[in-house]
Amino acid sequence: MNIPNAYDQWVYPKLSRIQKTMKYKFPKVKLNEDGNFGPTENDNYYNPVFYHNKTAKKNTNKTKWVLKKNEQYEVFRLSDEGKWTCKENQGLFGILEKGNIILGKGEERLSFFPKPTNKNDAWHGFPVHSGEYEPSNKTVNKWFENDVIDNRMRIKILKGAI
Amino acid sequence: MKTLKFTLEVDAIESYIYSGHLFLILLNGQVTYSPLSQIIYKLVNEYPKFENLIRVSFHRNDYLSNRQAEVFFGIGEMKKSFIQLWEEASEEMEFKIILDENDYTVIDEVPTMPVLDLKMYAMRLYIGSREGLYEVKLNSDDRYTLKPTKVKKRFDAKVTCLNAKFGEIIISSNSNGLFHGTFLNSSNNLIVNEESVSKKSIRTGWSGYDVINYDKQNDFDYYVNETEKIEEKPTYSKFDENSERRRITDFGSFKYDLSSLLSYSLIEKEQINYCFNSSTSGFFFMKDGSFVNINLKKPKDKQMYFVSKNNALPILKNGRAKFLKPLSTSIVPEGCVVEYFDKVVLYQNSKAKIIETSPSINVRTYPSSKRYRNLISVTKESEITIHSIFPFKEDNFPLTVVDFENNTAFEFA
């Protein structure tokens, strides 16, 4: 029998409730026949890999989304079309609604999409904490200058606090 | 008991109370300072009937914890009157003043914004930003009049957290690593050892002479430092600092990892969500939602360890999951302050008191200060609120969360 732990019983339902109170309107998109979402304006696809999905079995090494698969794609689409590239980390960073939306089960408010090895492969991604996945100054500045984040969020991200 | 508080309207991103002054980093990058006495004077003018309470609560916390206070407040009626006055003032005081350019002196400008951390120590101001560490010396001669020098760059990498004690400045530079340096040298300027002690450092905390380095929000290494007696003492703030008798000579001569320190405790490392420390204990937010405090034992000539008994602290279980992971934490006498995404909470006497209900840029406490040990300064977009914590141990309560804004309390068995 699969007994849910205290996190799943108590914390996770509340995170889900918070998502519902946040009024981000996720577009209705469907998986294509290859099991990917997309393409984005840049002709990129997103594959929501099972081990980062919110229903994935417990694996302490992998962060989990609180977002549904199509909602993850929206975070990826914004990152890809906004060109929120981080050269240092070789990938894209993502954020939603100036960081007001929780993306991961560990209360992560940022996400990272590593650049696929082959150009034609679909991307995947996962929620991250800025203390562990550190967006470059350039990426954070771009967000700030384009009003993707406010000054407070810029400081919290640069400090590795969020 | 509620905190006493007042608010300053100013566009600042950092604030720090030190040596009788409020230091600010303004949104435009200016480094400024304002005498705290001038601000207190305005507060007293508004609330003359609380004059002495305001003075001891915001300007002379040492008067509440010295030997004379112990005798004075040992008289039951005196303490009762103080408590009544505190309750009255905490309900009545709603003080907000605008701090403009006439109220502060500009020292200089920080070359690179935003500033990520500040530390004031031994009459020096250290400013950490995304492109380096800067030093300002506050005074060359006496300890009463400030004559700050211009901002000078001393380290050339991102600084996410600063700490200073025992002659050492401790610098967290995230993925660049953990660094340290001292100004106790012939140049009298901070010289940073360019070789990192650890490859990763988000923040640090002190445990006596030793430093705890957090390389993740839920993991750390404990660095044991060697010390020697100080021959020539640095200039300390007369108002704030106790002069130190020892300085660190060998940083990180020995290292413990978290797993080895937890070997006698009931805590499983994998279940930790976030942790921080005071000088003698560790605070752990667990993945099951619990929050515990555990004492750290340091037997002489033996391995140190966290004890097996946990002290449960109240958890914010009021149906808002935003409280789960702290953004920052700081220590106050007999407790701690936790900054969440949109709340600031004071944990003391088995109570969690919600003292701020909107997002903050930073939260500071001053536990080792003589005069300001009970203060909490909270910097937000366009305002700074200074709280003074009720200075006495309140009666033992069951674990309780108090939300003053909504006038509600939640109890936990």
Q: Can you give a write-up of this model?
A:
The complex is a heterodimer of chains A (162) and B (413). Chain A is of the alpha+beta class and 162 residues long. Chain A has one domain (6-159). Helices cover 30% and strands 9% of the residues of chain A. Chain A has four helices and four strands; from the N terminus they run H-H-E-E-E-E-H-H. Chain A has helices spanning 6-21, 69-82, 137-145, 151-159; strands spanning 85-86, 91-95, 110-114, 126-128. Chain A has a four-stranded antiparallel sheet with strand order 1-2-3-4, with helices on one face. In chain A, helix 3 runs antiparallel to helix 4 (151-159). The longest helix of chain A has 16 residues, at 6-21. Chain A starts with 5 loop residues before the first helix and ends with a helix. Chain B has 413 residues and is mainly beta. Chain B has helices spanning 36-46, 51-58, 67-72, 76-92, 258-261, and strands at residues 4-9, 12-18, 21-26, 30-35, 95-98, 105-109, 115-121, 124-129, 132-137, 152-155, 161-165, 168-172, 178-182, 191-192, 203-207, 210-216, 219-229, 246-257, 272-277, 281-286, 291-297, 305-306, 311-313, 328-332, 335-339, 344-348, 351-356, 362-365, 375-380, 383-388, 399-403, 408-412. In chain B, the strands form seven sheets. Chain B has a six-stranded mixed sheet, with no helix packed on it.
Q: Which structural class do you get from the secondary structure elements of chain B?
A: mainly beta
Instruction: Name the strands of the widest sheet of chain B in spatial order.
Output: 24-25-26-27-31-32
Task: Encode the helix/strand succession of chain A as letters.
Answer: HHEEEEHH
Count of separate structural domains of chain A:
1
Q: Quick check: average pLDDT of chain B? A: 92
Largest interface, C-beta closer than 8 angstroms, per-chain residues:
A-B, 28 and 34 residues
Could you tell me the radius of gyration of chain A in angstroms?
Answer: 15 Å
Averaging pLDDT over every residue of chain A, what do you get? 88
Shape of chain A: globular
Strand-residue proportion of chain B: 35-45%
* Head-to-tail CA distance between termini of chain B: 21 Å
Using only C-alpha atoms, the radius of gyration of chain B works out to 21 Å
Secondary structure: helix percent of chain B:
10-25%
> For this entry, what is the oligomeric state of its chains?
heterodimer
Q: Count all strands of chain B and give the number.
A: 32
Percent of sequence in beta strands of chain A: 5-15%
Straight-line N-to-C gap of chain A:
35 Å
Task: Figure out the total of helices of chain B.
Answer: 5
